[in-house]
From TrEMBL:
<keyword id="KW-0456">Lyase</keyword>
<protein>
    <submittedName>
        <fullName>Phosphoketolase</fullName>
    </submittedName>
</protein>
<dbReference type="InterPro" id="IPR005593">
    <property type="entry name" value="Xul5P/Fru6P_PKetolase"/>
</dbReference>
<dbReference type="InterPro" id="IPR019790">
    <property type="entry name" value="Xul5P/Fru6P_PKetolase_CS"/>
</dbReference>
<comment type="similarity">
    <text>Belongs to the XFP family.</text>
</comment>
<feature type="domain" description="Xylulose 5-phosphate/Fructose 6-phosphate phosphoketolase C-terminal">
    <location>
        <begin position="585"/>
        <end position="786"/>
    </location>
</feature>
<dbReference type="InterPro" id="IPR009014">
    <property type="entry name" value="Transketo_C/PFOR_II"/>
</dbReference>
<keyword id="KW-0786">Thiamine pyrophosphate</keyword>
<dbReference type="InterPro" id="IPR029061">
    <property type="entry name" value="THDP-binding"/>
</dbReference>
<dbReference type="Pfam" id="PF09364">
    <property type="entry name" value="XFP_N"/>
</dbReference>
<dbReference type="Pfam" id="PF03894">
    <property type="entry name" value="XFP"/>
</dbReference>
<dbReference type="GO" id="GO:0005975">
    <property type="term" value="P:carbohydrate metabolic process"/>
</dbReference>
<feature type="domain" description="Xylulose 5-phosphate/Fructose 6-phosphate phosphoketolase N-terminal">
    <location>
        <begin position="4"/>
        <end position="368"/>
    </location>
</feature>
<dbReference type="Pfam" id="PF09363">
    <property type="entry name" value="XFP_C"/>
</dbReference>
<dbReference type="InterPro" id="IPR018969">
    <property type="entry name" value="Xul5P/Fru6P_PKetolase_C"/>
</dbReference>
<dbReference type="InterPro" id="IPR018970">
    <property type="entry name" value="Xul5P/Fru6P_PKetolase_N"/>
</dbReference>
<dbReference type="InterPro" id="IPR019789">
    <property type="entry name" value="Xul5P/Fru6P_PKetolase_ThDP_BS"/>
</dbReference>
Amino acid sequence: MSQQQEITALKKFVRATNFLATSQIYLKQNVLHKRPLEHSDIKPRLLGHWGTCPGINFVYANVNRLIKKTNRPFLYLVGPGHGFPAVQANLFMEGSLSHFYPETIPYNETGIEDICKKFSAAYGYPSHANPEAPGQILEGGELGYSLSVAWGAVLDNPDLIATVLIGDGESETGPLAASWYANRLVSPANNGAVLPIVHINGYKISGPTRMGRMSHEELELEFKGLGYHPIIVDSDLEEDVYVQMTKAMDESYAMIEAIQTKARNGEDIVKPRWPVILMRTAKGWTGVAEDNGKKLEGNCDSHQVIVNKCAKDKQHLDALDQWLASYKFNELYSINEQNQIVFDKDIQSLLPPKELCCGRQHLSYGGEVVRSLNNPKLEDLAYGAETPRGQRGYSMLKMGQWMRDAFKLNRDQRNLRIFSPDETYSNQLQAVFEETDRAWQWPIESWDEDMSRDGRVLELLSENLLFGMLHGYTVTGRHGMFPTYESFSQVVSSMADQYCKYVYASQGVHFRKPVPSCNVVLSSLLERQDHNGYSHQNPSFLGAMLEKHPEIISAYLPADANTTLVYTERAFADRDKLNIIAAGKKELPQWLTLDEARQQAKDGVMVWDFASDENPDVVLAGCGDYVTQECMASLVILRELLPRVRVRFVSVTELSSSGLGSRKFQSKPWMMDEIFTADKGVVFNYHGYPNTIKKLVFDYKGSHRFRIKGYEEEGSTTTPFDMGVRNGTSRYHLVIDMAYKLFQQGVIDETQHVAITTDMLQRLVDHRNYIKANGVDPENIENWVWTR
């Protein structure tokens, strides 16, 4: 095909998709514009964003051309939030919608009527990319995640090219700004490539964008500084923008192929300079140029629905009528004997083979491409059965050993990665470096440790970038872990929310299959942020995520290392989940054998018989590892002071928005009475904010018996034990609370209650004086040993 034929085909293709996008936004009938418009043709509510649609269509057509030319698989990710009419227009044109929805969206005029009538209509199609749309791996309702998700998708998919269209408004977000740095992490030898295309249409919803007011020279300098090779495409230049774009796409592909070929032939590629296309076209390109003297095309006023009064205003209706007529859509297709649409032969020349259409890209379907993990044997890693109760050990070290063995067992599958915002060592996962390295494509100095071009650990100090990459990696069928400081996990709370929405919505889509879980590990927990101070004390991510669907979110708070191993194995075996594991990195007592830990994980709630008495007078519960240590220490003190009092200890290690414990436990409501008794007082010591647990037990008829302890936003630079003191979760506070419950129930008298409370308060005063004088906790606290 000659260049002129290609350009002719591209222009026809974009005309067709622009027409279909416009019709979706405006029309409820007469959607093919077979007669002049009437007011009754217009939807009662006009929703959607026209301004970005022409750019999406323009790029989609050029991606199709490149697929046809190279016969290589592509994903197309769309960053601009509400340009879905354009995406859906292309999915219809290429036949993907009719493939997946043959009954509702057949490949004929009825199919076009469906997508137009239902766009942004009640129970219809959303205004942004969504899981119901084929080929989409990103819930497009929030800006900023497109580029990082694209980088994650190409990891360990060496043939894949992910083209991602980035809005210039989107480029101003923090997550997107950090995503450019992924070129430091992704090796061209064993991974695919990302082709970013920044759509500089100049405007956001009501004003100019930063990039829109930059010169070509400034743009080139910025992206060269970021390590990319910028290619300018500008509709204001003399050369036809369609010609410019085909050249830019060809040049970009040639650069990608050259970099990958060199790397795969053994050449060490330092600082691979990937291409980025900087595409300037007018916002609302090909739409209505102006309205009553007000500039629309090429201005912020074309961002959403222009000429939006056409349901009643004759001038607006006429403008829309002329706009739709300008595309001459009726000239671009015919109907065959089977009542199917047959597009113009030029348009057909750009339609890829069915299996290579962006909407048919199998990597976007989830479970069809899941590469299952070979799991390590827990018996080889756990603290042994001969280990005495209370012997000290490390949860995060054991998790690191599990990951190390998993990397070894899955070396050939290349289906596992850690996405760590510069915290792998700090969070005590360093055992993984016995098997792999940190990936790094920039220069590696002789003194750098555990770094190589193809490491399985991705580290960069951006939670946004790495969580986005984890999203792209898991939804295309691979397994990952995101370990981070608990206090800073809230940085990605909204990203995690969008991930959950994507997974939840996918479950109702027939062609999407389950995807590996997204596993967030919270370490450097608030109880041991004593040296970092108040700024590092924040467990709010747990509470925020526990508002989500219980089918999607599980929060695991293992009390020791063996339970951590069991929940790590479970998390990686899960599908369609976001799992949170909160585990400390400091030395703590170990409580359960591996068999006991497995038993605990079945229900997520268990009475620890070895620490409990029959027919208890009071119940003590712990949820979290540091707070469990304090619970056990308080039991020792209480039994010394009140040897005849009977206490039950309950360990809670699993939470979801539907309550305490596993779904199996929650399905038996009577178990709450069986575990917590029907009438005894309960003191519940929780790792995070008390309100989280209060909400989870609100519907339990015995919730009035609960005294819930937790982080109360009190912190400072202090000693480890004093963090619990400041928030009322220390052993002394727990004894006070249990004594009060016992007094309320008449188990002890007022004299005993006052004496115990006075004793504990004095111990707290003594402790404060000691740490102020010595700077550390007393020996009997710092190296406390369990005795029963």
